[in-house]
Every structure is written in C-alpha cells, then in structure tokens.
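Problem: given the chain below (234 residues), write out its structure.
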Amino acid sequence: MRGEAHIATVASLIGDPARAGILTTLADGRALPAGELATSAGLSPSAASAHLNKLLEGGLLALECQGRHRYYRLAGPGIADALESLALIAGRPSRAGVVRSPQVEALRYARCCYDHLAGELGVGIAMALEDRGLIASVGPGKRVDVTLAGVAWFEAMFGIDVRKLKPGRHGLACRCLDWTERRHHLAGPLGTRLLQCYFELAWLRRTPQSRAVRLTQKGRDSLQALLGISTRTS
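Solution.
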C-alpha cells in the first residue's frame, strides 16, 4: 500500500469533528474515561463509544484498564504534535474585530501541549530562558541545548538534574512551534519536567475538562523574580 493511503486513513480519523474533539481533549497527556470524553465532545455514550473504537483501531488512542474502569489516552506524544501542527495550519489569524470567548483566550494564554507548557506563557518562558543563556537553539532543527549555566540554574531553582534526564528523539530539550503564537515553546524531557515542577510548586493549576492551565499569583510573582517576564494571572 502506498504511503499516501496511510496518511489519508489517519486524516479521515482526525477529520471527523467529534473525533477531533476527543483527541483535542486528550492532548494534555491525561487518560480519561469514555463518559468524560463524551461530555467534552457533546456526544451520547453510544456515539462516543463508536468513535473511541475507531480511534483505537486506527492507532491514535491507547487504552488503560484499572479494575473495571477503562481510560483512554493518546497513543503517544507524536499524536499531540500532529494536532498542534494541524491547529497551526487551521488557526490562521482571525479577522479584526472578532471577539474570542474566555475559553479560547485561556487556551491561547497557557495550555498543556501533551506534556509541556504551550501558549503565550510557554513561549514567554522559552524566550526568557534563551535570552539568559540557559538554553541555546542548535541549528535550524528542533534541538535545544542546555548550557553549563543552565545546568546549574535548573538544579538550583527547581532541583532538576539535567544530566539525569533521559534524552528524547531531539535530545534533552527541543523547540515546538506554538500554533497560537507562531513562535516556539520548550518541549522534550526538560520541558516535561518543568511543567511538572510548575504544578508541584502551585505556579499553575489545571482547568477542569480543558487543556488550559491557570497561572496563579504565586507563579506570576515567581516568574517575574526568576526570569523577569511580565505575566498575567489567568
């Protein structure tokens, strides 16, 4: 079978609005039950079950079972990357005068992109880290290096021993093009660990049934003090 046929099959799975809604709900890396996914996508339980089975068969979702409970999650971070890329293509700048809902604004400001921070806040943090020489982009690709100053800084500020992180496909850190900001935020093992730290330190809080995350006052003050970036609570 030609490669184009495989692309078409995956595209047809993602292209259905209901299935796209399910995948987007799971794009923050969580595993959720069918009932919650049905509610988020505005589907009946039977319709959600049919869509979930198609996504499982197509390799886009993975199933986790705990006792009698079944939880669905994206089959891997590559699925979330594909969703962000599609959103980048679809999310052309809107016409002047269009008013966005609070939910959309929250997603644009700060959201989980599978296992790392995206949106205006994620881009701002990535830029501040690079401006301070803590990370450095390597060539035209996605790879980002952690500098010697960065190794010391991440351990002192967050207790992250960068040398013990397991490198991913693009090393310890990499750039991820943000579909709302059209600039890069920080992904890879370092980006994942940083997001975990933000939650552990109560700098960020999750928003129920959404990929959006809320920046707390503590987080705002800490990011201003550590990186000198002006932020707004959400």
